[in-house]
Amino acid sequence: MIRSVHRRLAAGTAIAIAGLLAAAVPTAAATSSTTTSSSSSGSAAPARSLAALAAPDIPVANVKAHLNDLQSIATANGGNRAHGRTGYKASIDFVKAKLDAAGFTTTLQQFTSSGSTGYNLIADWPGGDANKVLMAGSHLDSVSSGPGINDNGSGSAAILETALAVSRAQFSPDKHLRFAWWGAEELGLVGSRYYVNSLSATDRSKISGYLNFDMIGSPNPGYFVYDDDPTIEQTFKTYFTGIGVPTEIETEGDGRSDHASFKNVGIPVGGLFTGASRTKSSAQATKWGGTSGQAFDRCYHSSCDTTSNISETALDRNSDAIAYAIWTLSAGTTVPPTGDVYENTTDVTIPDYGTAVTSSVAVSGRTGNAPAALQVGVDIKHTWRGDLVIDLVAPDGTAYRLKNSSGSDSADDVVATYTVNASSETANGTWQLKVQDVARYDTGYINSWKLTF
């Protein structure tokens, strides 16, 4: 985050999203080992938004692994990852390689600042409405005085892992998803301004929202939400309300990070922040924990901004909030499901290169057949998802293939929602998720799965 303070900019235009934003809570780790169902009729738990049901938990260990890699890059390149230095180019190459392997279309955009070549990295996920683009971005450069692990390795690593989660889930949102890593932010938002200025008026109008993440792992953290576009702001507030964490409006860094480049041209913006050099008050320490009278980040723009300068709790919460927002805001609507949800949260071990295993849900009390767009939500933890063949088995034994095995599908886990035309099947009865590992050396388990009628 750059040092200079800018006046507050005019509020951006609101994103037009069909329907009211659901009072949704993020998907939590299941604690019950029984099959459950919920109904929108009011007799069971309130329905959550479709996007919230699908949003994955972002593994904080993966985000920290990216931070360790950025630290190693800085250490090997003079202690920083600043614009024009070898550490920055190595950082952008590191992120690009991850995204290329995950199936993104990446573009390396060059610009010149202070006599040196700078780079922006743009990563597009295939599919979605090209006239409605949801962007998420973070600056990847550090100041020259340190490795910049909180500022802003934290935001960069979190959106990298969120992008990889999009790939693992083979997410197919209504909107087109675009992720960006900006160069030379510390010199005055140079990279993001260059990108926005390079867009035609038509291309700018296609960006329905830009989400910015700059410093989301401060060691004495606060939980701040940008006070800009009301829909984006409320989406983040809804997430944090769902996990019982109060938020405040972000004021310390307003206009000092890359969202300003988008906001200046009328693109709706929002984002998260955990604080920089400003001091945490006693009221904030009571609300969030931590130490009052100390800066949110005592190593801001200093050599001590290393991997030791990160709150894992803040990093974890904000990474999950990013995924929640991406899944929610990229949907064409946030109207909650109108049917019932039947879920099994009992873990089932998948043997390595072994026989198929099943997990069951019992559906009862329904009339007629299953819907033509039966939603099958799958959460499988596995060290090589390409080994897995997944089927939905109807009560009469008919199998519907959800996923084939593939040697090129090298990511971890399967977190996805599949749509099955089950209109020829009687709704009532025992439905099964059938999973088989058809290759050697990798293991995993069915974490949970659900049917939405």
**What level of helicity do the residues show?**
25-40%
What is the assigned CATH homologous superfamily of the largest domain? Answer: Zn peptidases
**Number of discrete helical segments:** 10
- Tell me the number of strands: 18
CATH topology of the largest domain: Aminopeptidase
CATH architecture of the largest domain: 3-Layer(aba) Sandwich
Q: Characterize the largest beta sheet: strand count, sense, and whether it forms a barrel.
A: 8 strands, mixed
- Share in β-strands: 25-35%
- The Rg value, from CA coordinates, equals 22 Å
Strand order of the largest sheet: 2-3-5-4-6-9-7-8
Highest CATH level, the class of the largest domain: Alpha Beta
Tell me the series of helices and strands, N- to C-terminal. Answer: EHHHEEEHEHHEEHEHEHHEEEEEEEEE
List the uncertain runs: 4-53, 333-338
Number of domains: 2
Tell me the span between the first and last alpha carbons.
46 Å
Mean pLDDT: 87
What structural class do the secondary elements suggest? alpha+beta
Based on Cα principal axes, name the global outline. globular
Can you walk me through this structure?
By secondary structure, this protein is an alpha+beta fold. The chain has 2 domains: 49-329, Aminopeptidase (3-Layer(aba) Sandwich); 341-452, Galactose-binding domain-like (Jelly Rolls), CATH 2.60.120.260. It is 25% helix and 26% strand. The protein contains 10 helices and 18 strands. The chain has an 8-stranded mixed β-sheet, sandwiched between helices. Strands 1, 10, 11, 13, 16 and 18 form a 6-stranded antiparallel β-sheet that branches. Strand 4, helix 4 and strand 5 (175-182) form a beta-alpha-beta unit. Helix 2 (60-75) runs antiparallel to helix 3 (86-101), helix 4 (149-169) packs across helix 10 and helix 7 (230-242) crosses helix 10 (312-329). The chain is globular. Residues 4-53 and 333-338 have low confidence and may be disordered.
